[in-house]
Specification:
By secondary structure, this protein is of the alpha/beta class. The protein folds into two domains: 124 residues, Rossmann fold; 95 residues, Rossmann fold. The chain is built from ten helices and 15 strands. It has a six-stranded parallel β-sheet. The chain has a five-stranded parallel β-sheet with strand order 7-6-8-9-12, with helices on both faces. Helix 6 links the parallel strand 8 and strand 9. Helix 4 packs parallel to helix 5 and helix 6 packs across helix 7. The longest helix has 12 residues. The chain is globular. The two termini are 13 Å apart.
Length: 267
């Protein structure tokens, strides 16, 4: 399939599941063609959701971040691993307690489903991206898990793109707890099928009419493949043409960025 045919095929999809970091922006810098892409989604009445593995921000904060970049997007178009984690824990152990290592997005999501903060005898130790990460925090988490608290990670990302490179993400931050306790964390975010089911439900779409656009082979692309959703890898984030070869699977389509979707191609 040539580039023009690929673009036409993607444009004909009715539902779009889009990652954010590395697809829409790097840090606080919007990526090329994103404004045109979002305008196109709206103008064509496409169903779309920004599905991020980052647990750091609340929906309101994500809305504000995009607004500062010139993008006005309703709250219904967002879903995060923090919200998925809160939903999962509430279904497993309603109104439980957790030692929370994370930012406002995760803390608020857990409080909103009825969870309480507990640093003495919690049901869970829950970790997301955390700027409060410290030796003391890890030491406490290790001892809580050793005494029976179950270990939960909001996502299995090792790193994430930022404006000047990459930053450690949840899986990297949680690994000391796993190593010391010998307990493996359960990760709720992509590629957990739970996230894909939630995204399709929010869109109200069939998987055949949907495509997932992401920058990571190990989360976005494998999530789509295992959910039998068409996948488009963009090279505007963490992945490169070389890094693709390190995986045993391939995305259905590869583009430089979402700007290509709204660019005219001629034979």
């Amino acid at each position: 399939m040539d580039k023009k045919s690929i673009i036409e095929y993607i444009r004909n999809k009715s539902g779009f599941i889009c990652d954010m970091d590395g697809v829409i922006y790097h840090g606080n810098k919007i990526l090329e063609g994103v404004k045109e892409f979002v305008s196109w989604l709206k103008d064509e009445n496409k169903k779309f959701v920004f599905l991020t593995n980052s647990s750091e921000n609340t929906i309101k904060e994500l809305q504000g971040k995009l607004s500062r970049m010139g993008l006005v997007v309703g709250f219904e178009h967002f879903y995060t691993s923090a919200l998925a984690t809160a939903t999962f824990l509430q279904s497993q152990n309603p109104n439980g307690s957790a030692y929370i290592i994370g930012e406002a997005g995760l803390i608020n999501a857990l409080y909103d489903v009825g969870y309480s903060s507990n640093n003495i005898d919690p049901d869970y130790v829950v970790m997301g991206e955390a700027r409060s990460y410290s030796y003391e925090v890890i030491e406490r988490a290790v001892n809580l898990v050793s005494r029976g608290a179950r270990l939960i990670g909001t996502n299995p990302d090792i790193s994430g793109p930022i404006e000047n490179g990459i930053a450690p993400a949840t899986k990297a931050l949680i690994s000391p707890i796993e190593l010391v306790t010998g307990k493996q964390a359960y990760f709720v975010g992509k590629p957990n099928p739970l996230m894909m089911r939630i995204a399709l439900k929010k869109l109200g779409m069939r998987r055949e009419d949907t495509i997932i656009i992401g920058d990571r082979m190990d989360t976005d692309i494998v999530a789509g493949l295992e959910a039998e959703i068409d996948t488009c890898l963009v090279l505007s984030g963490i992945s490169t043409e070389q890094s693709i070869t390190e995986f045993a699977y391939r995305p259905h389509y590869i583009l430089q960025g979402v700007n290509e979707i709204v660019k005219d191609y001629r034979i």
